[in-house]
Design a protein that fits this description.
By secondary structure, the chain is α+β, with helices and mostly antiparallel strands. It has one domain. Helix content is 34%, strand content 22%. It contains 6 helices and 8 strands, in the order ααβββββαβαβαβα. The protein has an 8-stranded mixed β-sheet with strand order 2-1-3-4-5-6-7-8, with helices on both faces. Helix 4 packs parallel to helix 5. The longest helix has 19 residues. The mean pLDDT is 92. It comes from Actinoplanes sichuanensis. This is Restriction endonuclease.
């Protein structure tokens, strides 16, 4: 099924509940798809009872914003005076979570930096990263989401690449591989990785989009239960 860009925009507008963003039908479809996936993280958090706020700025001068602005190229969360938006998710007494687009983390095995389309990490770990001016370690992050917007079946090479990333980052970090298309061979490659989660056909109106939100809710539950087992997510 062909995905219409306008459908992605309509859905992300709904998920962000009126918060303004810079994307239009003239924007690159793959960038819109990333923000669509970002909006699904927000939607999943809200449905799980989380409180969402949006910020821009550096460690000590972050300010709450209502207009969202996202990176056009990979960056780092410790860049000074940055204008890029990130979200915070609050679930009771559990530490805040932050959600970023197109930032880098450091792999567990190779210790090399690699880009994440969407990164979910503990607020304290993010603050430490900004204070020390270094990308967060994979072991300090909750989840990453790789977004692939394709017009054809996904090549197996994408599965191999993401499997290698999951292997390098370690089993504590959940890796979500999300695409509007299918890719049976790519999924077969990923299936051997215990921390790799794959959801194909994620697009507006498709039940698999709801499946992804359920998977994200599970990640939030695992975070919250470490600090407040009685808190319902």
């Amino acid at each position: 099924m062909r995905v219409k860009v306008q459908d992605l925009l309509t859905e992300l507008d709904t998920n962000l509940a009126g918060i303004r963003h810079p994307y239009t039908s003239a924007s690159s479809a793959d960038r819109i798809y990333e923000v669509y996936a970002f909006s699904m993280v927000i939607s999943a958090a809200v449905k799980a009872g989380g409180e969402v706020r949006y910020y821009a700025g550096s460690q000590y001068f972050a300010k709450e914003v209502k207009d969202l602005e996202f990176r056009g190229a990979p960056g780092v969360i410790h860049a000074p005076n940055q204008r890029w938006t990130f979200a915070t998710l609050n679930f009771g007494v559990a530490p805040l979570l932050e959600v970023h687009l197109r930032v880098k983390i450091v792999g567990g095995r190779t210790k090399t930096e690699g880009e994440c389309d969407i990164l979910i990490l503990d607020h304290h770990a993010a603050g430490t990263s900004r204070a020390k001016r270094q990308s967060p370690a994979a072991s300090k992050c909750l989840a990453v989401i790789e977004c692939k917007f394709y017009s054809t079946t996904l090549p197996v090479a994408l599965g191999r690449e993401f499997a290698n990333l999951c292997r390098d980052r370690g089993q504590r970090l959940l890796g979500y591989f999300v695409s509007n298309q299918t890719g049976p061979q790519a999924w077969k490659t990923l299936a051997a990785e215990p921390n790799a989660i794959c959801e194909f056909g994620v697009r507006p109106g498709d039940p698999r989009a709801q499946h992804l939100e359920t998977l994200l809710r599970e990640a939030f539950k695992r975070h919250v239960v470490l600090y407040d087992p009685d808190h319902v997510v």
